[in-house]
Each structure stands twice: as structure tokens, then as C-alpha cells.
Amino acid sequence: MFGNTFGEHFRLTTFGESHGQSVGGVIDGCPAGLKVDFEHVSKELARRRGDGIPHTTARKEPDLIEWQSGIMDGVTLGTPIAFIVGNRDVRSDDYESLKDWQRAGHADYTWQVKYGVRDHRGGGRASARETVARVIGGTIAKQLLLQKGISISSEVILPHNREGENGSTRFGGHVKCTVYGLHAGVGDPVFNKLNARLAYATMSIPSAVSFEMGSGNDATSMTGAEYADRWTPDIQPRGANTQPLTITNHSGGIQGGISNGMPVEFSVGFHPVVTQIPLTQCRNLAGEVRMIELKGRHDHCHVPRAAVIVEAMAALAIIDFLI
Amino acid sequence: MFGNTFGEHFRLTTFGESHGQSVGGVIDGCPAGLKVDFEHVSKELARRRGDGIPHTTARKEPDLIEWQSGIMDGVTLGTPIAFIVGNRDVRSDDYESLKDWQRAGHADYTWQVKYGVRDHRGGGRASARETVARVIGGTIAKQLLLQKGISISSEVILPHNREGENGSTRFGGHVKCTVYGLHAGVGDPVFNKLNARLAYATMSIPSAVSFEMGSGNDATSMTGAEYADRWTPDIQPRGANTQPLTITNHSGGIQGGISNGMPVEFSVGFHPVVTQIPLTQCRNLAGEVRMIELKGRHDHCHVPRAAVIVEAMAALAIIDFLI
Amino acid sequence: MFGNTFGEHFRLTTFGESHGQSVGGVIDGCPAGLKVDFEHVSKELARRRGDGIPHTTARKEPDLIEWQSGIMDGVTLGTPIAFIVGNRDVRSDDYESLKDWQRAGHADYTWQVKYGVRDHRGGGRASARETVARVIGGTIAKQLLLQKGISISSEVILPHNREGENGSTRFGGHVKCTVYGLHAGVGDPVFNKLNARLAYATMSIPSAVSFEMGSGNDATSMTGAEYADRWTPDIQPRGANTQPLTITNHSGGIQGGISNGMPVEFSVGFHPVVTQIPLTQCRNLAGEVRMIELKGRHDHCHVPRAAVIVEAMAALAIIDFLI
Amino acid sequence: MFGNTFGEHFRLTTFGESHGQSVGGVIDGCPAGLKVDFEHVSKELARRRGDGIPHTTARKEPDLIEWQSGIMDGVTLGTPIAFIVGNRDVRSDDYESLKDWQRAGHADYTWQVKYGVRDHRGGGRASARETVARVIGGTIAKQLLLQKGISISSEVILPHNREGENGSTRFGGHVKCTVYGLHAGVGDPVFNKLNARLAYATMSIPSAVSFEMGSGNDATSMTGAEYADRWTPDIQPRGANTQPLTITNHSGGIQGGISNGMPVEFSVGFHPVVTQIPLTQCRNLAGEVRMIELKGRHDHCHVPRAAVIVEAMAALAIIDFLI
């Protein structure tokens, strides 16, 4: 079980604590010959930072990527691509008061139990800062997919965007993601169904609480006749590419774990930001519970920032089948 | 990508086509010294067959397991445990009319595209018959978990159990699954979060369309204050085991991908049975679409039978962290 | 670490104790569409049994393969190929006297320490009978390689074939193996060098004690000028395929872990049969040492039988790079 | 196949081209709580550089390690340990003349065929500079082994250390490696035998041409009675730890792939340095062959420097069984 590696053929290994020297990653399995679009990578990182989105975290890293290997003159060599992003805007002192305390709703307690030791500064490895490496790796995957005519986009759905009581925001939501241009025949039929890999990939994103394939939960109340996507009749005479394979797409473009050539559609739900400011309930290993004043910097809502991570994880899951 | 293997440390590899010689599996990684409860395995297989449940498939396999290796005098040896279950009640002729046709809503099309060749008899490898091996492997996993005080149970939720139009049943639903007794500290913090592995494991079950962790989609409309599971106050004085760690369990017992010692709760949604009897819309590779009379035998509702498979996959996902 | 699986893309998992129900295996990753040559498989098993070779074991299994899955009408489906070979000629009683004793030079002691329990009958899983599954899996691999114009052959070298003192034979030796037709570019440059994978594959064969690549140990006493395989001059004008790439082949057809298109040559050394008949020195867990009369049936020399296993493991190692 | 990762549980991924930004690696699977001995790491790197050894390469990197993650206050966190070593003393211009030419005996040709593109400067990824990361990863593994009382040492055997003709040195040799303190029961019985993993690990070292376990090739000419390591009699009365388990150690401490508690002994052979100075025979993709003047800097003999790499790979292979 390698918590820090995703993928079997296009493999991303990530490293780095939130307040350590850097976060980064190594991509193994990227083919030689890809001309890397560095500006695209930067733009995707800006989406992750939430540049221009209100209510996002006050921590603004420049996210300067130092590429270490695997690329010469802007072109991939087929060797491992390693990259690091220095942690520059670190205010570790904000977290000193939390050294012996575990915040309610956070991973502080579970991490301490598992490892016995933890980097308490800003969530350590459990921090969402780790997703910087996911976005970089996922963007390289997206560029490989684009070469094959496959693109990924997403829509953020926030039906509850109003202030909650106690200054807490009722502000979770969904990211609805669509993969266009994926040909039929991608995915494995038993354990590594394409839908299972997408669920695996996206449910590993911090704060994800649900995954729905195609019509998802809505499908549970349909009849079989309603749910089964009927073939578009007489498809051949009009040409194979002029109309879709099926009339509806309740299955989200996957049958038996394998893509059918329709758009692949799925949705990921996220719980609201759990950090309570300024006072958060905390517990120490002795079992004492207390309200503690929290400094740090935190989002009001992270769902808009999660969109690019959902896309990145989808790209990583899909490219893994195509390498 | 090994579609036919699940797990990294306790590894189940399954094989067998629906209408071939047998279905079966190999478990690699089971420790030596487990006294196998064979009657328990048989009972779990009976749950999968839907014995005693109305509206389930007319195909009744005796499911006689022939254990090949890894067990001597009823005790595991630490070597691979191989088992086969012969396919006895096979009526392949029922499927001859489907040889060149792909049913709407089924994996026939995607399978044909992927492999170029397929065993058209009863769904071949994509058939739900493959889950026999999951249940056997999962039951061995359950027995190992029970030794550690961990048990898994589930509840079937069918709010829509009424006949639909055209003889089609509105009969999908959910399996709500709970793991009791899992200690804190299980799961990995980044890609192999316990919730991500549970999603991966259960979304690979035929007909699964959604996965929700803890409060799942309900969590997306809560405030952070509502969602964050608050510590039960003053836990120490009354003894560590007399009351739960948190007051609520919206997170489903997992934070940052790692168990916190509370019950692990998740839910899996299933779409309705897609096979339309007696006429089903079919398409051939030439693009012709036609209604074809289908024989075969099929469930009205498979969700009750899916419960034991959800439990089996959860057991496989969890034991993998504990070996 | 899965002691029972070899390969990453063409993956053979083996199971079965020497005196259990069967030995067998599952091949995952074999492409659809291979027309299996069953007679070839039987012939390779006959080579493993040593049919027609003097001094080989008196245990003569018919080695009837029961194919379970993955093949329909003699053609592979792309699904896992499972097979079992029943253990018919089992004389477990021969081993009752050994239940609590560990033979010198055998795996009895190490197995007991590792697992706490063992199937003492005929070596259990550590028995050379396990290699039946390697040969079957390796022969399927060979058939895939043959489709690509790649063939594997070997030569047995027994310079010491004379009777030793005490009825013990001085009869170890080498298997020199050559792979013809492998194109340039196969192998990975760092840890998964083709030579490293061949060493891994063949050093896992029972009794193997040495692996030499190309000129092997002889290379350690050459000058660099002698060892470096010089390019055949002016290769183009005469046509690319009419003469070899290099004049000599000290490297055995591999540079930097990657094949260069020359024949791949390596050698595997085997120690002599360690079983001493009729009396063998044994030890029990209490530390007592005693001479015990051994029944069972054993080879005088196993090197000729090992040749087909060396070829099988080479085939498995190479096909893994080509799938 | 991940050429750039070694290990299943303690996993080292390496990256970096010889003349790129840096070489480095990520260790995943190192337990939390190890107090890293940084000076030990530096000393091992000095052994790899050949500090103080005559006839070694003129390229002297300071090998300053920049630790990126996984260590806080000198103690491992259980998270991935990433490190980079900048390439400072790079004279890429030396290699410009080689851009279109492949040197005889080198990986230039095979690399070009495999990837279509290569970093021609100093061997790129195929350069021995890659072993910097192996030594760092292996030294961390050694420190974990030392905590368990396991140590690794080696001896360099150079029987041919004399100048050859044409200024070429007859200077290959062997590294004989011994692992002390490894308890019985380590290794897997079938494919992942401890000896097979050691062969795999060490045959991936640049220039390795042979692997011998225990008595190795000498064993092929012994009788079974000579080879089988006899039990030391009456071991218990004198205490378990006062005398070795067996009288001889021809098997090198491993039976059936599993350690028996005796010292683990094996030997790795290396071919001589192939780079011919000042003129080396080269070939281009058009098939033209020519003598080219080579600048660069190269060892006369690399075997003494290989010793620490053999030890590092042995440490990586062994720790993988103990995590």
C-alpha cells in the first residue's frame, strides 16, 4: 500500500509536508517526446490556489516549480520527471499552540495515532498543500490526453452558498466532471473498472465525501427501462461520428467498467470547511477537551479550488489505462 | 493494471467465465494458522445466490467449492489458497441468439470493442457470476478480521420497490455498510485513504453507481460546525472504552483517510436491473438496431444479493491494511 | 512481496503444495486471440519430468492439465487463464517419518521458522513440483514470443558427471540459455534492466546458485578493449539484416540493461542434488541431530530437467517487457 | 515495469540525468522515528566517489544532499523522504562530439533505439551517476537494519590488477558481500526467494556481469554430500547463540529462498571499464563506424567504488522483507 503513489503505468509519487522544505513529486512512465506546456501547468496551479476566487485561503504561494529531471529543452526524455515547489510563505508559528492538540474534524488525531509522530505545522503531509503535486502530475497527464484528443472539464455546483450560523459557512458542494473524446474500450472488466478507478482517484482528494457515476443516486429510483441507455437507431447510414452511440447517458459512458465512447460523466461531493475560526474544539492525547484559538489561514469554501484537483485525478486515472 | 487482482498485501485474483469450466480465485497473503470456517463460506455464498429472497435469478448453482491448495486439515498454511467453483447449471444455448448482438445497457458492446473476441454466453467474464470468487475471498478476509474483533454488517435500502411500467421494476437501491471494531490508525494519508480504497473496492461491483462516505451527499449542505464531529467531552475520567470518541459520526469514522476508532460507515447505490424481458433492444457491430427476444434468467432486483458482495469488498479493502 | 506471482504485465501466480489437491496457476495479462498449442505445453512438461533422461526422479505424474478459464475453442479470451494439474501419484506416507525433522541442505528448517506450520509431505510448497506451473505459464509466454519471431533454447553443461563417494553424485552443472530474435530496445535502464530481470527470474529456480550474463565471470579478467563488443563495420551498405551488429557478444546482447538486437546469452549454475539416500542428517526444533532413513523418490541429477524451467522463466521475464 | 523504482514495501524511486539539474530519489515506506545519521550517509557517498582510491574518475562532485521532506529535526516522519543532489561539476561540452554517435560497449545505441531521444551528455540516465541515489536510499536502509542488529560488509577482489595492452586496464573483479545478523525466516519460497531478490538488486548495478550465491559456481562441481551444509550437532545444550547452525555455509545462509540465520554470502562480478581513451570506436544511426576522440572523465577501475553500491542494493533488498 503506497499512500504516496498513484497509478500503475503512469505513476505519480508525491512528497512533502505543508511546512517542510518543499512539496513535489516524481512522474514515472511519461513517454518521451512530449513538449511540455509550462504555462498550462502554471495556470492549473493558479486555479488550485483559487486566484481570483473570493473566500479562498489567504496563503498565497507563488508555486514556482523547479523541474529536476526528465525534461531536456522542454521535451520529456522518457525518464522520471521530478519536480519540487518550495514552501515559501510558511508561518509555522501560527501552529505552535496546536502542538499537543487535535482539532475536531481534522486528521490530527488519526495521524498521531498512526505514526506516533507528526509534523503539526499546518497539517503536515495531510494538508491540502499536498495537492500541488497532484495538479502538476495531473496537468502533464492532461497534456498527454490532449494529444489523443481527450479533454476534461468540470462544473462547480454550490446550491448552499449562504452564510451559516456562528459565522460558519454552509458552503460544501459538488464538482461535476466530464471527459470528452475518450474512445470505447478503456477500462478493465473486474476490479479495475474505469468507474472504480475514477472513484478511487477522486475519493482520495481531501474533503471528498461522495462519488456518483453517470446519473448516480438518481439511477437508484429509475426503472430498468428508464436507466438502460438505448442505442441511437440506424447509426451507420448517417456516419459513425455524426451522432452519439446512445440516446441517453445515464451510465456516464461506461458499461461493465469499460468506456463506450460517450462522454464520461461523474460527480464528486465535498463536505464544508471544518476549521472553525477563531475558536475550534480540540482534544489532547490525555483526553482533555478544550476550545482553542486558531490562527492559520483557511478557506471559506474549497470546492471551487477542488475542481482542478478532480480533473487532475481523473486525468491520472485515465492516462494510466492508455500508457 | 490488473483487472483481475484486488489488494496489495492480501491479494485476491479471480478467474472464470460465466459459462466456462469454473469460476475461482487465488488468495495470496493469507497468514498461516487460520482455522477456516467452511460453513460460514457456504452461508455467505447462499446470501449471494439470494436463497430465500423473492425476485432473484432462477439460475441456482450449488456453488460447491473445491479447495485446491493453501489449507491442510482445515488450517491455512500461509501459501496461496486456490479454489474453484464448477459451472454446473449452464444453459449456453439461451445465448446463441445474442452471439452477434449487443444488448442496450450491458457490457456486450464495450467488451467486444476492447477484446475483439468475447464469450457471449451469459456475459462471459463480465457476468455477475464472477462475484462468487469475491464472496469466497471476502469471507476469508472477514474471518481474519473477526480474529481481530472487527465485524462488518449491512442494511439494504429499497425505497422504490414497486413495479414500473412495461413490466420493468423500479427496484434499484442502496446498501448501507458498517464496520465495527476497527481501531484508530488504519488507512494511508494521501492516495490510499481508507475511504478511497473502500470506494475503489465497492465501485467495482457490477451495477454500483454511487459511493457515499459517512453522511455523504447530506454533508454537502451542512455548515462546517454541523459537519465537524465534536469530541465527546471528558472522555478519560469515565474510561476510554465506555463512550465513543465523537458525539456525531458524519465523517463515517475516517479523518484524513485514516480510521479514528468510530464505526466506519458508508453507502453504495445500485442501478436497477437493465435486462428487459422478453424483448431487449440490441445493436450489432454493423450499427443495426433491433428488438431481440431474450431467454436467459435474470433477477428482478439484485440489491439484496449485492449486500454480501459489498461486505466482501469492504473486508478485502480493510484486511489489506492490516496484513 | 508476492512470492507466488512473477511479472508485472504478463503475470503468473502459482499455487499448490507438492502433496495437496493440485498444483496450478493463473496467468493474467495474456492478450486475446492466441491459438494455444496444447501439444507444445505437454511436450514441455515432459521435458520437465525428464521423460527419457536417465537418473531422474521415479515420481511420474501424468501431468494432465485441466484448463479452467480464459480459453474458448482453443483461443485465449484476454481474461485470466487458470489451470490445475492434479497430484495423482502421491505417496505421503513416505514422509511421515520426517514430520518433526528438518533435513540438512533442504528448506525444511527455514520454512518451519517462517510459517510455524508446514506441509511436510514432499517439501510442500517448496518442492520442485511447483515448477509445473512455471513451465505451463512459461510455455504460453514462449508461444506469444514465437508470434513475434523470438525463440529460446538452451544447452545443458555437465562437466562433472561422475559418481562421487558415498553413492553421492558429483552432478551439478550449468544451463546455458540463448534468446534469438529479440529486437533492440527491450529492457529498462535502471532497476529493471533486462539482465537484472533474467537474474531475478532464474535465480528463483530451486537449486540455482549462479547467474552469468554474456561472458560472465570470464569478463572480469578481460581488458576493456577485449570486453567492449566492437561494431561490425560498414553495416548499412550490405543490408541491415545480413550481418550482426557487433563482432563479439561478450555483453550477451544487452547494454545498459536494454537489448541491442544480438542474441541474448546467459548461463545459470545449479548445485547438486542434496538429498542423501538412504540416510540423511536431520535436526528437529529441539536442536537434536540424527541420521534418518529417507524414503521418497529423488533425482540423481536435476540439471537436464532444469533446462526447460530456465527457458520458461526467461520467457516470462521477456514477455513482461513486450505486453 | 518501473525501471526507476526498487522494492515493494521499502520503495526507492530514483530520478535524474547525469548532466541535468540533479539526481535524487524518494523513499516511500521508511518507518517513522528513525534518527538519521547524516554523517554516515556522507561517508557512504565518499566511498561511492572513490575518495582516496587511485585510478578513479576525475569528476569530483561535492554530493551535497538537499533533503526535501519526510524528516523533521533529524527524525523520520513516516512520510516519503525526498532528496536531491545537484549536478555541479558538469562539463557537458565534453560530450558534444558524441551527440550523433554511439560508443562501442556503451548503452548509447540501445537507449537511442528504445526512447528515440536521449540526453547524450555523460550517459544521461544510464550514467553511473544515477547510483548516487541508490547509495543514499541504501544507507537509510542500512541504518534501519542496524537497529535490528543486521550489518552488511564487503570485500573487493581484483586478481587481475595489471595494465593491459593499448593502455587498457585488465581490472574487472568481484565484490564479495556478507550480511551478518539476519535472523532465520526472511525471504519468500517461490519467486521472491531472498537469493533471487539479491540477484535482481545487484545485477541492476552498472557493469555487473555475474551473481553467485554462497559457494556459487564452485558448488556445481561438488557432490551432494559435500554441498549440503550439515547441522552442527548438539546445538541446544550449549545454548542457541554460541555456535552456528551449520558446519559449512555453501548455501550462503539461504535454503528454499529463506534465510537460515547463518551469514548471507554472495558475490557479484563486474566487467572492466569499457570506455577507451583517447579513441573509442563509435557508430551512428546511419550505420557508419568511426574512431572518435573522447574527452569526458572516466575510471580506470570501478570495482572498488561498486562495493558500496552492492551493499546498498543488498540493504534495499533485505529491508524490503522486514518492513
Could you walk me through the main structural features you see in this protein, from its secondary elements to its overall organization?
The structure is a homotetramer of 323-residue chains. In chain A, helix 3 packs across helix 6. Helix content of chain A is 22%, strand content 23%. With 323 residues, chain A is an alpha+beta fold. In chain A, the strands form six sheets. A five-stranded antiparallel β-sheet of chain A has the order 1-2-3-7-4. A four-stranded antiparallel β-sheet of chain A has the order 9-12-16-13. In chain A, strands 8-17-18 form a three-stranded antiparallel β-sheet, with no helix packed on it. Chains in contact: A-B, A-D, B-C, C-D. Chains A and B meet through strand 1, helix 2, strand 11, helix 4 and strand 13 of A and strand 1, helix 2, strand 11, helix 4 and strand 13 of B.
- Tell me the structural class of chain A: alpha+beta
Strand order of the largest sheet of chain A: 1-2-3-7-4
| Mean pLDDT reading of chain A | 87
Q: What share of residues are in beta strands of chain A?
A: 15-25%
* Assembly form of the protein: homotetramer
Order of secondary-structure elements of chain A: EEEHEEEEEHHEEEEHEHEEEEEH
Shape of chain A: globular
Please name the two chains that share the biggest interface, counting residues whose Cβ lies under 8 Å from a Cβ on the partner chain. Answer: C-D, 112 and 112 residues
The stretches of 5 or more residues of chain A where confidence is low (pLDDT under 50) are: none
The biggest beta sheet of chain A reads:
5 strands, antiparallel
Distance between the termini of chain A: 22 Å
Radius of gyration of chain A: 21 Å
Approximate helicity band of chain A: 10-25%
Number of extended strands of chain A: 18
